[in-house]
Amino acid sequence: LGWSYRHATKTAKKLPNNLDEVLTEAFLREAHAIRTHVIPGALRINTDQTQIVYQQGSETTWSEKGAKQVPTSGHDEKCAFTLVPSISASGILLPMQAVYGGASHLSLPSKKCAAYADAKELGVRVIASQTKTYWSNHEMMHDLVDHIIAPYFDATKKELGLPDTQYALWKIDCWSVHKSKDFMDWMRAHHPHIIVLFLPDNCT
Q1: How confident is the model at residue 78 (pLDDT cuts 50, 70, 90)?
Q2: Where do runs of H (alpha helix) occur along the chain?
């Protein structure tokens, strides 16, 4: 048939030219915060946001050799949600947040679905983004901090016998919502003892 196995391609983000310098500065910034405020591993959290696709469309297919246009089924169809896991430097996995596109409970998984009760028992927080997309936004970040990050820090401080004024460290991606003045001002106003550090851009 004159076919060959073809793969759709796209340009990947490039690492910064001064990668070693960027990583060294990030390491020193984090080390300085830990040493200055004597922050134990249990009070240092790394959070990520990842897209979970229910059924991934394939980027590869069989097509005629030399073909300039190679269509695939389901490539542009994304039925997904955003999962937000967090883990402490001491190895504690925090409850996860799951963000779905939509404005009501009708956009969320049914309480009758398989493993729903198990997920809730593990503390998974299932919420609607109040928008058409499933991406996290300011309101979702506020929800994450108020219901997962801050309560964990508060409980851990009590467990370790530390005062409420003890600083904690939260490391997140260098993303526009995270870096925005609105979000950082909100963090300083509502959670002044949580130090926010960013993973260097294009380094994850």
Answers
A1: low
A2: 19-37, 116-121, 138-144, 150-160, 176-179, 181-190
Query: How would you classify the pairing of strands 80-84 and 50-53?
Result: antiparallel
Residues 37-76 have pLDDT tens digits of 999 999 999 999 888 887 666 666 667 777 777 666 655 6
Which backbone phi and psi does 70 adopt, to 5 degrees?
-125, 95
Residue 95 above 90 pLDDT?
Answer: yes
Contact 153, 43 (CB under 8 A): yes
- Rounded Cα gap, residues 65 and 83, in angstroms: 39
112: exposed, middle or buried (Cβ count in 10 Å: 0-12, 13-18, 19+): exposed
Residue 15 corresponds to which tokens in the numbers above?
Answer: 């690492």
The CA distance from 6 to 8, in Å, is 7
* Residue 40 to residue 44: CA distance in whole angstroms: 7
Helix (H, G, I), strand (E, B) or coil at 74: coil
pTM: 0.80
